[in-house]
Write a structure and sequence with these properties.
Blueprint: H1 5-13, H2 19-27, H3 36-40, H4 45-50, H5 52-62, H6 69-84, H7 88-95, H8 103-115, H9 119-128, H10 137-145, H11 150-158
Helix pairs in contact: 1-2, 2-6, 5-8, 5-10, 6-7, 8-9, 8-10, 9-11
Amino acid sequence: MSLCFDQAYTALRNGRISYEQYLHEVLANFADTRHASHALLKRSWEFSINDPVGNSIREAVLSTPTVSHQDLQTHLLPLYLSVLHSSLPSLRHHLSHPMAQHKPILRSLLTLAASVSSAQILHYLLSAHPTLSLQETNTSLALSYTRRTAPMLDVLYNH
């Protein structure tokens, strides 16, 4: 069983796990059994404000049918790791899988790209998927915490 979203975020912020390990933990929720009551539960405001990536992945998990552990390891995890490591060729490859086209998953990828200040990935996702928006709540929150580099400012100005 994976850590819950709040436990994973706390471990990340306290330096007990890396960002990659954090993604492993929260993405495992795609394959874990979900209880109907979890969909009704809200995260506390502290976590909602401070962990926009976790929020967006949680929203994707709650709106996506449970996936097999193999699909998680083969398709979803590499997709998110491509964004984390700003690997556009890898992202393009993994976006070809139909599961990756689910809009809540795309939104969470956009939020992750904003969180790690990946201007190249942000630009690609916004250009390839024009229905995505930087105004979405979690993405907007992530952008408020991100580094404002020249490439990031270009993306913000042009999208």
